[in-house]
Amino acid sequence: MKPVAFIAAVALTVLTPTAMSQDQGPASNEFRIVGYLPDYRMSDFDLSPCKVLTDLYLFSAEVSPDGSLSLDRLRNAPWSRLQSFKTTHRVRLVLCIGGWDRSSGFGPMATSTQARKRFIESVRATCLEKRLDGIDIDWEHPQNEAEQGAYAQLLIELAESLHSHGLQVSVTMASWQTIPSKGLEAVDAVNIMSYDHDGRHSTFEAAQADIEKVITLGATPDQINLGVPFYGRSLSDRNKALTWAELADQVKPGFDEHDGVYFNGPETIRRKTRMAKDKGLGGVMIWELGQDVTGKNSLLTVIREEAQRRPAK
Question: Residue 222 above 70 pLDDT?
Fold first, then answer.
């Protein structure tokens, strides 16, 4: 995932019965609401709206080629407050590793047996020290077949190590990307970041197609969290993006386009969340929480309402 400019991908996450929260988080069969919180928002971010989440993803740490893990970007993270929040509200706290322009260490690490071992040990120690419930791997992107194979092996070894401590592993990937099925089978959650397509970057139809593509790669529907954007992107300039907070007061209800910017308004977010439930998906995923508004136009509120909706009899 790319902060601010969001040349984003598809986050894949899959919950297995063996992965349990250290602090008894949400039930594994609960419709998941996964939200990313970037490091540049953490120091003064109001966590109170996030109590409706099942999973709070902290973005992000980085891996070095030798397998060491750097939390430098998270030096200002309010760890005590985050830990207290997760315990009070039974929200899983997950550390994302990588992302756009933060993934250069993955290739050398994953293709080295020794560096991979060091990385896994560092991840496990960090999770236990910070009282995390797991990690999210966001490698953007493997460049060749050898790295693809190493990626799958990394996920398998991570899962073997972390599951023994009741920790989960999720993996992030672009919709055009592939991961060997044995890698997907090993992880706990599949978050599809179904946005940043060409043109209207996050349509309902594209979301449907992304879901089907990930299923063909080997994920089951209940493993998948459908990613939804809390931002819009210009139709003429991909580098221009506006947050929902910048758009909410300007747009007309029922429209997903304003002044050449395409976004997902409340009705589309509701429709996508409903589709995720109707298709038996694991849940939805949000990039990112700091782009929302409070009050009647909150997209997170729409997701919560739809997630709590009981199926029609």
Answer: yes
- 77 is written with which tokens? 């993270």
Whether 312 is covered by a domain: the verdict is no
Nearest to 166 by CA among 24, 11, 13, 14: 24
Q: Which residue has the higher pLDDT, 173 or 1?
A: 173
Q: Is 199 helix (H, G, I), strand (E, B) or coil?
A: coil
Residue 78 counted as domain residue: yes
The residue behind tokens 């550390």 is 95
Distance CA 283, CA 30 (A): 8
Element (H, E) at 225: strand 224-229
| 0.85 exceeded by pTM | yes
Return the number of other C-beta atoms located less than 10 Å from residue 151's C-beta: 25
User: What is the CATH number for 51?
Assistant: 3.20.20.80
207-212 LR contacts (CB < 8 Å, sep 24+): 207/272, 207/275, 208/275, 210/10, 210/175, 211/279, 211/281
Q: How many domains does the chain have?
A: 1
Residue 236 lies in a domain: yes
- Structural domain of 157: 10-307
- For tokens 């409340």, what's the residue? 266
Structural domain includes residue 1: no
**Bond prior to 141 in cis (omega within 30° of 0):** yes
